[in-house]
Amino acid sequence: MQHENFKNTPSADFYGLFQFIFDFYNFEIFKGDIKNCIIVITRQKSVAGHYCYERWFSAKDKEIDELAINPSLFVKAPLMEICQTVVHEMCHAWQFHFGKPSRKGYHNKEWANKKIRCDLISFP
């Protein structure tokens, strides 16, 4: 049974926003091809976000990918740059499921071409 105040919690609002951003771009850019993942907020030096293939496990869904955003962006970047970071990481998701990712932490030509097709060439 769901508690009546669940939808009005800071966590539900916060993570709901990121799920909305993910769902919006998944439909608009990736035609719904990116499978759902766990969206986390994590502080990792020198990165805006990261994507980890099959980082989590669920008995129902088996392995689940992780898309992480660094909260340092929230105070210094406009919402558009945060959205661009989400899509940047979604390009990694696309490559893991439909392409050939390079070694960990690197962007290859296939990933760069996908990012360009997503109109994100202005944000690293």
Describe it for me?
With 124 residues, this protein is of the alpha+beta class. Helix 1 packs across helix 3 (79-98) and helix 3 (79-98) crosses helix 4 (109-117). It contains four helices and three strands, in the order αβββααα. The model has no long low-confidence stretch (mean pLDDT 82). A hairpin with a 3-residue loop joins strand 2 (49-58) and strand 3. It has helices at residues 10-28, 72-76, 79-98, 109-117, and strands spanning 38-41, 49-58, 62-69. A three-stranded mixed beta sheet has the order 1-3-2. It is globular, with a radius of gyration of 15 Å.
List keywords for this structure.
single chain; 124 residues; alpha+beta; three-stranded mixed beta sheet; 4 helices; 3 strands; 43% helix
Query: What proportion strand?
Result: 15-25%
Shape: globular
Relative helix content: 40-55%
Secondary structure tally, helices: 4
Low-confidence stretches: none
Overall pLDDT: 82
Number of strands: 3
Order of SSEs: HEEEHHH
Structural class by sheet pairing and helices = alpha+beta
Quaternary organization: single chain
Determine the N-to-C terminus distance. Answer: 43 Å
Which sequence of strands runs across the widest sheet? 1-3-2
